[in-house]
Design a protein that fits this description.
- The chain has about 280 residues and is of the alpha/beta class.
- The mean pLDDT is about 95.
- β6, α4 (about 125-135) and β7 form a beta-alpha-beta unit.
- It has helices at about 30-40, 55-70, 90-105, 125-135, 150-160, 175-185, 205-215, 220-230, 240-245, 255-265; strands spanning about 10, 15-20, 20-25, 45-50, 80-85, 110-115, 140-145, 165-170, 190-195, 230-235.
- It has an 8-stranded parallel β-sheet. Strands 1-2 form a two-stranded antiparallel ribbon.
- The protein is about 40% helix and about 15% strand.
- The chain is globular, with a radius of gyration of 18 Å.
């Protein structure tokens, strides 16, 4: 099990990916973003997750460059993820989108590049592009986001390279049991976005009771629950004290009974769009 903030899991191609990282969804370009990225790296985070559609790759790149210089780290010490947006899900357009993301980030390569949403009739062409980038050694790992089991099954029919990661909405109200089982059986690593349900779980009484027992916050309990399920997690925060607090989850362990109680909160409730029914 993960023992510290820089613990990694080996993706099915052998690439090590940190279990824990910083998400920057809805954080606008500017000093707040740059400082959040820098604070996370300063406090030991080694994984940063962004996406083309977030419109903040330039600031993320700036934060990374400044943090590397200030902390005596090199590029290889970090794991950086971005995602290709729906409007770029053709073969040539996905290749071009990758170059655009690299340019904005100011990086030579990404550690992980994901298809952001399973747009019907488009994701297979995009996947071919990601396979090309991967085979050419331009990206360390490739994967998908928001893919349900049937999307994965469809992709795997024609894929030459199996996705290494599937990043999905995952939290105690949406435990994704079947999807977690399927990805595990395929050797695809599940990763949680919106692990704290955009703050909607932070006054949940069951989680509060478990948190009190461990003298931890509800956020820490949820993030620990992710890790004990073998799910990579990338909580978003721009506040330095939260960035530190979120990562302080390696000095306690949830019992199986507590894990089961948290699992039982599931209502299949989403805060984000439904991957089977979205129109963007």
């Amino acid at each position: 099990m993960t023992r510290h903030l820089q613990s990694t899991t080996a993706l099915h191609n052998g690439v090590p990916m940190p279990w824990f990282g910083l998400g920057v969804f809805k954080v606008e370009e500017g000093s707040e973003l740059v400082e959040a990225v820098k604070a996370s790296i300063r406090h030991g985070y080694r994984s940063i997750d962004t996406a083309a559609i977030y419109g903040n790759e330039t600031g993320v790149g700036q934060g990374i460059r400044e943090a590397l210089a200030e902390n005596g780290l090199s590029r290889k010490d970090l794991f950086v993820t971005s995602k290709v947006w729906n409007s770029d899900l053709g073969y040539e357009s996905a290749l071009a989108a990758y170059e655009t993301s690299l340019t904005k980030l100011g990086l030579d390569y990404l550690d992980l590049y994901l298809i952001h949403w399973p747009v019907a009739g488009k994701y297979k062409e995009a996947w071919r592009a990601l396979e090309t980038l991967y085979k050419e050694g331009r990206v360390k790992a490739i994967g998908v986001s928001n893919f349900q089991i049937h999307h994965l099954e469809d992709l795997l029919k024609d894929a030459a390279v199996k996705p290494m990661v599937n990043q999905v909405e995952f939290h105690p109200m949406l435990t994704q049991k079947e999807l977690l089982g399927f990805t595990r059986s395929q050797g695809i690593q599940l990763e949680a976005w919106s692990p704290l349900m955009q703050g909607q779980l932070l006054d949940n009484p069951v989680l509060g009771e478990i948190a009190d027992k461990h003298s931890k916050s509800i956020a820490q309990v949820i993030l620990r629950w992710d890790l004990q399920h073998g799910v990579i997690t990338i909580p978003k925060s721009t506040k330095e004290h939260r960035i530190i607090e979120n990562a302080a989850i390696y000095d306690f362990e949830l019992t199986q009974a507590e894990m089961d109680r948290i699992d039982s909160l599931n209502e299949n409730r989403r805060v984000g769009p439904d991957p089977d029914n979205f129109d963007f």
